Each structure stands twice: as C-alpha cells, then as structure tokens.
Automatic annotation (TrEMBL), chain A:
This is Aminotransferase class I/II-fold pyridoxal phosphate-dependent enzyme. InterPro entries: Aminotrans_II_pyridoxalP_BS (IPR001917), Aminotransferase_I/II_large (IPR004839), AON_synthase_class-II (IPR050087), PyrdxlP-dep_Trfase (IPR015424), PyrdxlP-dep_Trfase_major (IPR015421), PyrdxlP-dep_Trfase_small (IPR015422). GO terms for molecular function: pyridoxal phosphate binding; transaminase activity. It comes from Qipengyuania aquimaris. PROSITE patterns: AA_TRANSFER_CLASS_2. The keyword Transferase applies. Pfam families: Aminotran_1_2 (PF00155). PANTHER family: CLASS II AMINOTRANSFERASE/8-AMINO-7-OXONONANOATE SYNTHASE (PTHR13693), LD36009P (PTHR13693:SF3). Residues 66-406 form the Aminotransferase class I/classII large domain. The keyword Electron transport does not apply. NCBIfam families: SerpalmtaseAlphaP (NF047603), SerpalmtaseBetaP (NF047599). Keywords: Aminotransferase, Pyridoxal phosphate, Transferase. The lineage of its organism: Bacteria, Pseudomonadati, Pseudomonadota, Alphaproteobacteria, Sphingomonadales. CDD domains: KBL_like.
UniProtKB/TrEMBL annotation, chain B:
It holds the Pfam family PP-binding. Residues 1-78 form the Carrier domain. InterPro entries: ACP-like_sf, PP-bd_ACP. It comes from Qipengyuania aquimaris. This is Acyl carrier protein. PROSITE patterns: CARRIER. It comes from the Bacteria.
Length: 418, 80
C-alpha cells in the first residue's frame, strides 16, 4: 500500500454516466469528499509546502519550523556531504540531464556505476536502474508475467504493483494480507504447467508490518513459482547488510527479483531491480517502462551511487534507527495511542485514529505544534482505517524522539484522542 | 453440482456480506446494489473459491457484474 493519497492502491474503475458530456463528472464524488474535509476548516493535509528544508529531520512547513516524521528518509542521506558533493560534481561534469532513453543516448558512466553499486550491495549478478521505483514494478511485473501466466499477490500491495499487474496480461489472483494459508490455497489451484509469479513486500508501508517471508517464499518455491519481493521500505536498514527482510528472513537466495527505490533510504529518486536470473539482461530490450522514457539525470545517479556505497557501512546508523523506532513505539503505546503493530517491526509506526474527522484534526494539531506525519485515510488504507503514519530517520536524535512524543501527547489531549 | 445447487450455496455464502439485506436476484449488481468494496469482494470471492476449490482471478471477476453471472461462472468452473 502506498502513500495514503485519497485513492486506493488497487485501481478502481470510475464509470461515466450516459448523457454526461464533461469527462470530469466521474470525479464528482471525490471532489465533494475533499471539499467536505476542507469546509470543516482543517489545514489541507495534501497541500503542504516545505518552504525550506533544514536537514533530513527539519523543515519550514507553511511558515513553521517542523520536525519531519513522515518522509521515508530512513537513513538521512539527503544532506550527507559526500552524497551532495557527488551530485554537484556530476552536474558540473555531465550536465543537468541525459535527454534520452537508457537504450539510446541515456546511459552514462554514472548509470553503469550505480548498477555496479547495487550488484555489490545485494551481492547479485544483475542490476537494472529505472527512473522511479514505480516504473521498476510497472516494467518488471508487466513484462515477465504474460498471457496465461498467473500472478499471486498480497491484497495490500503498493499501487505500483497493482498497476504492473493491470498493464500486463497475466491472470491476477490476490490473497488476504500476510496470510500464508490463503496464498498456498491459491497456488495449489493454479494449473501446474502455468507460469507463476508471487509478489510480496518486505515491509508493508501502511501499518509498518513485515511479511512472513521465510514461510511464504518456501510455499512459493514448493509450487514452482518465481518470487518478486519489493523491499522499498527496508533497504539499508533491515538485515545484516541492509538488504531487507529477504536477508533477515534468510531467503535472499530463493528470491528471483528484488525491487527497490532510491526515493527512501537512498535519499534521491530512481528505482531498480536486482536478480541472479541468467537471462535477466534481456529486460533492457523488452521492458517498455525502461525503454520508452528518459534516464535519470547524471547528478541523481551519482548521488544514488555514493549513498548506496555508504549504506553498505551503515551499521551504526542502522542500530540507532532501531533504537528510535523502539522508543517511539513504546512512548506512543504508553501514552495510550493505538498502534498498527504490537511490536515495532520496521521504521514505520502507524498510529490508528478513531475516524477520519479526528484523524484530520489530530494531523492538523500535530502540524501546528511543529510535527509532520503522513495522514493515510480511506479508501487508501487497509480495513478503511485512518492512520497517522510516522517514519523514523536515523538522524532523529534521542531528544528529538522525546520532543515528538511531547507533541503527540499535547495534540492528542487537545483533540481528545487520549 | 447443478446450477440450482451452486446458486443455493453461493446465496448462503453471500448472506453475511449482504449487510443491508438486499433481496438478491439474478440481476443484483455486486457494486451498485450490494455495494461491495474491494476488501469485501476479496473475502467473498475467497469463500467461494474455498467452497468450490476453484480460482476466480481478478480478470474473471472483472467480467462478472451481476449475481446471475457469478452463478453461471462458478457452475461452469466447478464442472471443469
Ligand atoms: C512498496 C513500494 N514500492 C514502490 C514504491 C515506488 O517508489 P518510487 O517512489 O521510487 O516510485 C513505493 C513508494 O513510493 C513503495 O512504497
């Protein structure tokens, strides 16, 4: 599941009504819902402007100095001096953009370098860099699962996974979130000779919970399925080398494809797929979202490359991020908030709100008290919950986590949630 | 199982999902009349799949709008 924009990850079909000439009529319900929220007088949660960014954890938002607790900047690499320097150098040496596709004039030395860095980071044979993580899922899924093949996926999958399924021609079979038995039943019923792709995420970003990958990958292999795991929210942080839940669950050798993004721990923009499949390189010719779009600017791949190589040695930062996650989780629980998981499982802590009205009021109280979190609301959320999603950063100090808890206490009491 | 038996079984499964107690006919629409959202659809479909030991992929679900179409599809699938 994704960033809690006001639409579900699984694509909906909005139907026009006979006689409507304005193609926008089908959005009337959404327009009314949004207006209703704004009319109740709250600050628009989806229209925040950061006028100045001071560090990975601080910004001036709508005129106020604000602690950032909802940016997925897990490892705080965005202001790392080496990373920034690499970007400046590449901008000077290679210019502001490639103006071309990876398969034509858009592959510079930097694109090869960042792919080498990914191969080293994951200890895998192949790495392919896309312009975003969204496009990596879109491209890989729609290309490898074709007509007559089956995709078996978790119902809480990210929008980019659903859209990859929608763009391809495979049969799509979802199962209940993190339910091993439901997944196995579906695999068992698929014709034995059909091609099968199981798609999982290491960390699900709505509740911050982790998938039981050990069991799920074993089941997938038992039925001869290939396995793709999206590790967008675990890179650099979970597993001994930061390779993700696939590493901490010790299944990385059984996983066929790992999808990731540069937009979270790496601290820039871009997406990738790594794999040991011997024929993987052919993707560069057949994967349309790779071929038919311009490649990342040289400065972006240079910052990504430097950041990834630094993340390989990030074990101290990783340990501190875990501390932050544990402290925030315990503090919020002690304050009486209802959380998405009983124990902290990742760097995402989801605070469950009683309803959308109070959730929006709480979000506004937090932002006015100087704290930015991510508001996720129905229908984008599992079980139509309203969530305040907090994502921690390795650069949050212990004191800052204390400050965050104070803001939560003050705001929660003002709104009447605790 | 013949169509009538499949129909009876699916009616039984649909009962707890039919929160508003809509009278289900062959022409009842899942989206418009029963107002199933995507999570309800998943749970409902999963129960049918388990009962008949079949798979109804999302691609197949997209072709099914009305109750009668579902009974037809399941009758055919479980006979194969
Ligand atoms: C699970 C998951 N996959 C893929 C993406 C897409 O990444 P990107 O921001 O690089 O497009 C995201 C986040 O946006 C995500 O949460």
């Amino acid at each position: 599941m994704s960033e809690g924009i006001s639409q579900p990850d699984q694509p909906q079909t909005l139907e026009g009504h006979a006689g409507d000439k304005d193609l926008f009529s089908k959005f009337d319900d959404i327009i009314a819902m949004r207006q209703g929220l704004l009319d109740s007088g709250v600050e628009d949660p989806f229209n925040l402007v950061m006028e100045k960014v001071l560090s990975p954890t601080r910004a001036i938002c709508n005129g106020r100095e604000t602690i950032l607790l909802g940016t997925y900047n897990y490892m705080g690499m965005t202001f790392d001096p080496d990373v920034v320097e690499a970007g400046k150098q590449a901008l000077a040496d290679f210019g502001s953009g490639t103006t071309g596709s990876r398969v034509l004039n858009g592959t510079y030395q930097g694109h090869k370098d960042v792919e080498e860095a990914l191969k080293d980071f994951y200890d895998m044979d192949h790495a392919m860099v896309f312009s975003t993580g969204y496009q990596a899922n879109l491209g890989i899924i729609s290309t490898i699962a074709g007509k007559g093949d089956y995709i078996v996926l978790d119902i809480d999958s990210h929008a980019s996974i659903w859209d990859g399924c929608a763009m391809g021609n495979a049969e799509v079979v979802p199962f209940k979130h993190n339910d091993i038995e439901a997944m196995e039943k579906r695999l068992r019923r698929i014709p034995e000779d059909a091609g099968k792709l199981v798609i999982l995420e290491g960390v699900y970003s709505m509740l911050g919970d982790v998938a039981p990958l050990k069991e799920m990958v074993a089941v997938a292999k038992k039925y001869g399925a290939m396995v793709l795991v999206d590790e967008a929210h675990s890179m650099g942080f979970i597993g001994e080398h930061g390779r993700g839940v696939v590493e901490s669950a010790d299944v990385i050798d059984d996983v066929d494809f790992i999808i990731g993004t540069f937009s979270k721990s790496v601290g820039t923009v871009g997406g990738f797929c790594v794999s040991n499949h011997p024929k993987f390189d052919i993707m560069r010719l057949v994967c349309r979202p790779y071929v038919f779009t311009a490649s990342l600017p040289p400065s972006v791949v240079a910052t990504a490359c430097t950041s990834i190589r630094k993340l390989m040695h990030g074990s101290n930062k990783r340990a501190h991020l875990w501390e932050n996650s544990k402290n925030l989780h315990k503090g919020l629980k002690d304050l009486g908030f209802q959380l998405g998981t009983d124990e902290p499982q990742s760097a995402i802590i989801a605070v469950i709100m009683p309803d959308l009205q109070q959730g929006a009021a709480m979000w506004e109280a937090l932002i006015k008290n100087g704290l930015y979190v991510n508001l996720a609301r129905p229908p984008a959320t599992p079980a139509n919950m309203t969530l305040l999603r907090c994502s921690l950063c390795a650069e949050h100090s212990e004191e800052e986590v204390g400050e965050i808890l104070e803001i939560f206490e003050k705001s929660g009491k003002a709104v009447g949630i605790i | 199982m013949d169509r009538a038996e499949v129909d009876a079984k699916i009616r039984e499964i649909a009962e707890p999902f039919n929160k508003k107690g809509v009278t289900i006919t062959e022409d009842t629409s899942f989206q418009n009349d029963l107002e199933f959202d995507s999570l309800t659809v998943m749970d409902f479909v999963a129960e049918i799949e388990d009962e008949f030991d079949i798979i109804i992929s999302m691609n197949q679900q997209a072709e099914i709008e009305k109750y009668g179409q579902l009974v037809d599809a399941v009758t055919k699938m479980q006979a194969d």
